[in-house]
Amino acid sequence: MSKPNSMLFKIVLGLFLFFGGTSSYAQAIFKGTIEDIETEKPIPYASVFLANTTFGTSSDEEGKFSLDIPDGNYEVIIRILGYEGLTFNLPASTVQPQGYRFKLISVDEDLDEMEVSDVRDPSWYRNLDDFKKFFLGTSENSRDTEILNELSMILNDQSIPGTLIASSRDILQIDNINLGYRVEYLLEHFRNDYRSGIVTYSGFPLFIPDSNLSKGKQRRVEKNRLEAYYGSMQHFLKAVYDGKTVAEGFEMRRLFREKDPDRPGKFIDRVDSILITSIAIRKNIGTRDYLEFSDHILVTYLNEKESFLYAQGLSRGPRNNQTSIMRMAVDSLEIFENGSLSDPFGLVVEGYIGWERVGDLLPIDYLPTTEFKRGVQ
């Protein structure tokens, strides 16, 4: 397994950071007022959104907002420049109909530091290329994805030898042309350890669908979304939750990783020939479900070939199936119907699914439509 294709996959998506199922019908109205904590004056134009979904809004001139949210459990983000942001968990079932008052703390901004300059050191641009490679990815969708405000990036390769740490002064504005979304991504963490080949990242994305697509472009976008969804982590975990991994085209086998006695620091992988038809989900009292499995599992998606770009990165030709290796980093993970997990660090993923990054990411409220099926041209 090639190390550059290994990553701690943050079900954030980075994956998918967010919790809970969604449905197509609004179950609650989340509303409130955003104010300055000292003056109690309203704060207009603050962003309010449910992370990793298409659900978001802004406060009006009186600091008020209202947002219909489906049944489920979400991370809510409230953010505006000049104030400390708020991030909190909100189950739709607990939303109070009378609304909420949110008081933000103002922060002093160094205007000179916040000013974006076109002048950058050559090493900054090299680091930017690396960041985009490992954050956006190298797939066809990723190559056509653009960070519109990349000059807001802070790229640090000096604090820790052999490590690139990235952050941003502002929410990243990402234009994903192929999937038809503008993504506003609040980057919480990015680290690329060049020596181990492990990349970790996390954040809070809001997906804004492009509403100005022609019918022809919309069909192409729907096809691209289907291709991004099928075989993805979101698809796999939804199939696990539904007990339909085989029907959805996934094969699973136990994989045993042992130290190579002849090569220190290397491993030998041995795959069990017996297929696993399901992964254990422990049903808790009530409606909460937990994913649990031991060792490593080899996950093969049979319905799509590998991307040529993926195989090219491994210096070989594409294979007929997409393979990934997964192991749990914790004892159990709460799993939800839409293909999300409770802990962004809960799974370690290598291989094809680990190769797919933000450029192939879809919101957790995305549902494949019956009109567009596999193989539609």
TrEMBL record:
<keyword id="KW-0732">Signal</keyword>
<dbReference type="InterPro" id="IPR008969">
    <property type="entry name" value="CarboxyPept-like_regulatory"/>
</dbReference>
<feature type="signal peptide">
    <location>
        <begin position="1"/>
        <end position="28"/>
    </location>
</feature>
<protein>
    <submittedName>
        <fullName>Carboxypeptidase-like regulatory domain-containing protein</fullName>
    </submittedName>
</protein>
<dbReference type="Pfam" id="PF13715">
    <property type="entry name" value="CarbopepD_reg_2"/>
</dbReference>
